Amino acid sequence: MDARVTDAPERQRYEIRVDGEEVAGFVDYRTTTDGLLVLTHTEVDPSYKGRGVGGRLVQGVLEDVRARGGRVLAVCPFARKWIERHPDYADLVHRVEESRVTD
């Protein structure tokens, strides 16, 4: 299966096309003022489910983020679980530090 992931910034999402066809899935995102890419939602067309398209999509997003020197915050449950199962992408994940309140 030939799959290509591309950024579609005008729609604030990454898209995956399989075998040159129409969009098979996408990851919606928002960008914060400091450049953090917040992954909000992943969706794969039902005809492609169970074929690894979602995983390839998230991996393509992360590879692009890495190439750009960026970081991600995955609030999308699918993207978050995928990243947890692939620790070689952990360096791209923005971690929210716990705040301490002092008297």
Summarize the structure.
The protein has 103 residues and is an alpha+beta fold.
Structural account:
By secondary structure, the chain is of the alpha+beta class. The chain has a single domain (about 5-90), classed as Aminopeptidase (3-Layer(aba) Sandwich). Helices cover about 25% and strands about 30% of the residues. The protein has helices at about 55-70, 75-85; strands spanning about 5-10, 15-20, 25-30, 35-45, 70-75. The protein has a five-stranded mixed beta sheet. β1 and β2 form a beta hairpin. It is globular. GO terms for molecular function: acyltransferase activity, transferring groups other than amino-acyl groups. InterPro entries: Acyl_CoA_acyltransferase, Gcn5-rel_NAT, GNAT_dom, GNAT_YJDJ.
Which terms summarize this structure?
disordered C terminus; Aminopeptidase; five-stranded mixed sheet; 103 residues; alpha+beta; 24% helix
